[in-house]
Q: What sequence folds into this?
């Protein structure tokens, strides 16, 4: 019951955002209603509007964020405001383009280990294809929302070791 309440509240917030941000614009597959049981979904020609862009960013920065994930790699439900892929592109695309990935460097897991070891924009890729899960018979390979390739520096080691920092934003 708690999950359904949380989901209902989330959808309500999505619909409120839709009304406040887009008004009566015809970007969506259905008009707003108080009784919606699913999140707003952008029509196919407007799914780019599901990517949040940094306020004050230049048109060139916004274009770079929109291009940070190839359109051909978008999943079927990218236009839904519940899309984890659109969320990952919104968060990591903006941080990458604005060169602010360093804000992630102090994040730690519950054991106190750093989650990120690099803030290099070239080390960050969105929707990285996985080819080592033994799923070669799939028509579409599994994808990781965001991958950071980096070098972890260790105070006790004389030379750094290569690591793969993985962030999955799947909801």
A:
């Amino acid at each position: 019951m708690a999950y359904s309440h949380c989901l209902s509240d989330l959808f309500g917030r999505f619909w409120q955002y839709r009304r406040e941000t887009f008004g009566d614009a015809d970007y969506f597959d259905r008009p707003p209603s108080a009784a919606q049981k699913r999140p707003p979904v952008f029509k196919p020609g407007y799914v780019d509007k599901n990517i949040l862009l940094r306020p004050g960013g230049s048109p060139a920065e916004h274009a770079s964020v929109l291009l940070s994930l190839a359109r051909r790699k978008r999943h079927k439900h990218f236009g839904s405001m519940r899309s984890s892929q659109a969320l990952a592109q919104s968060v990591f695309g903006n941080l990458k383009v604005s060169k602010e990935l360093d804000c992630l460097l102090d994040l730690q897991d519950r054991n106190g280990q750093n989650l990120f070891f690099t803030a290099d924009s070239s080390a960050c890729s969105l929707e990285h294809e996985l080819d080592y899960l033994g799923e070669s018979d799939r028509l579409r390979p599994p994808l990781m929302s965001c991958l950071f390739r980096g070098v972890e520096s260790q105070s006790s080691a004389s030379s750094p070791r290569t690591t793969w920092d993985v962030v999955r934003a799947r909801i």
User: Anything to note?
Assistant: The two ends are 18 Å apart (CA to CA).
